[in-house]
Each structure stands twice: as C-alpha cells, then as structure tokens.
Amino acid sequence: MSRTSILSCEEVTVAFDGFKAVQGMSLSLDPGELRFLIGPNGAGKTTMLDVICGKVKPVSGSVSFHSRAGVVDITKRKEHKIAELGIGRKFQTPSIFAGLSVMENLEIAMSQNRSVWATLRASLTARERERIDEELALIGLGDHRHTRAGLLSHGQKQWLEIGMMLMQEPEILLLDEPVAGMTDRETDKTGELLQEIVKRRTVVVVEHDMEFVRNFASKVTVMHEGRLLKDGTMDEIQRDDRVAEVYLGK
Ligand code: ADP
C-alpha cells in the first residue's frame, strides 16, 4: 500500500457458490478523494463495497485501512468492527427512524452505544448541540430539524441518512447509488454535499447516473465482469475504447 493511500484493496477475489463475482480486483484510495465506481450491471461494484465494509469476505486478496489510528488489515475483521474503525456504509434504502424528528435521528446516530430512549431522554451537551447544528447545515436540513423524518422528501431522507453516518465520524463513506430516484435539483445538491464531505473525509460512490458522475467525479474506477477495467479521470475514462465498448457505448 502506498504511503498516501487511506484504503488499499489488493487482488481481491469473491466467490458465491463458486461463481467469481469479483476477480483479482485492486483499488487504492487517496485521503479526501471522491471516487466513483462504475460499470455495467453485475460488474461487481456492490460486492466491492461489501468487501470493504466487511459484509462479504473475499476468498483471496486483502484490504488494508490506513486509518488515523494506524494501518489495519481489515480483510477478516467483522462488519461492526470495521464500522467502529471508521468506514461507514450507506445502502440504497434509507434506514432512518420515520416517526422521530430529523434532530432526534441525528442524536441517535451520534450515540450509537446508548439505547434510543436513553439517548432521547438525555440532554445534549453544548458541544453535541453544536455538532448537530453543523451537520444539519451541511445536509441542508437546518429548517427541518423538528420535522418528522417520515415526512421528508426522498432526497431529504437520503441526506439525513448521510448526516447520520457523519455523526459517527467515519474516515471513509461508502455510498450505493445515493442519487437514485432523486430529482435533478436533488442530484446536484447531493453532488455539492459530497464535495463538501470530501474536504474532511474520503467517499466512494457506486453510481449508474453517468451525468452525475461526469459532473462530480474527480477519479473514476470502471469494473467489468468482476475485474478492474480502468482507473482514471472522467476524461481518460471517456476516451478509453474498452470502456466505450463494455459500458458507455452500449
Ligand atoms: P454490480 O453492483 O456491479 O451490479 P454486484 O456486485 O451486485 O454487481 O454483483 C456481481 C455479481 O455477483 C452478479 O452476477 C450478481 O448476481 C452476483 N452476486 C452478488 N451478490 C451475490 C450473492 N449474495 N449470491 C450470489 N451471487 C451474488
């Protein structure tokens, strides 16, 4: 792993009942990157996120996390341990508490080791209030702090969930199609949010929306049939004949 990487996947192979969903895949992330992972359906993108967050274990290869606390081989670590170390994962469906307010959702996310009710009964410290205010401003829900989460728009729910991840101070955020189902305006706002987040953290996004990728990607990794097809800037990716053949041109 290079000294500057925050995460390095080396030659990762994943098999499901003998079928290789990912084969010899290597991926290295620099701190503060907004990396997009693209490729046709079934290319192995989600499986790679699953490997990084520990949900799926590779049959060979390794994953190391160069966290603020030091370099950790997370290949065999349990999913919750990897989350504690500082890698957060967001799935497509938001997992928010629909009956609670936006602010209460953030409070719960901040104090993972307390029960929900103990958290809501406890009064917030000044520092905790400040953190929640910062996060509300970042995710653009400052005016909705008392709104029930279930009443938010689809886009706002996604931002709330991103805010909930941020309350846990991850160093790396893994997002699976965060703009799916969003309006154009919500999609742009999400891109701006991600650009703000990478000022302090590293983000990996699995994405199908190519316009979104074009507008916000600094670096793109293309997968095809479980393998790395190409890493590069959006310009480099768009000029690549193999990428055009398997993906962009289809
Ligand atoms: P992508 O995210 O690029 O669409 P996936 O990582 O979801 O691709 O899937 C890669 C391949 O692995 C697909 O052929 C998919 O059907 C298969 N796959 C993914 N998860 C499982 C699983 N739990 N069991 C069996 N096959 C799986």
UniProtKB/TrEMBL annotation:
Pfam families in UniProt: ABC_tran
Coiled-coil intervals, chain numbering: none
This protein's name: Urea ABC transporter ATP-binding protein UrtD
Domain ABC transporter span(s) in chain numbering: 7-250
GO MF assignments: ATP binding; ATP hydrolysis activity
Superkingdom of source: Bacteria
UniProt keyword annotation of ATP-binding present: yes
Entries under SUPFAM superfamilies matching the protein: P-loop containing nucleoside triphosphate hydrolases (SSF52540)
Database matches in SMART domains: AAA
Keywords of this entry: ATP-binding, Nucleotide-binding, Transport
Gene Ontology annotations for the cellular component aspect, listed alphabetically: plasma membrane
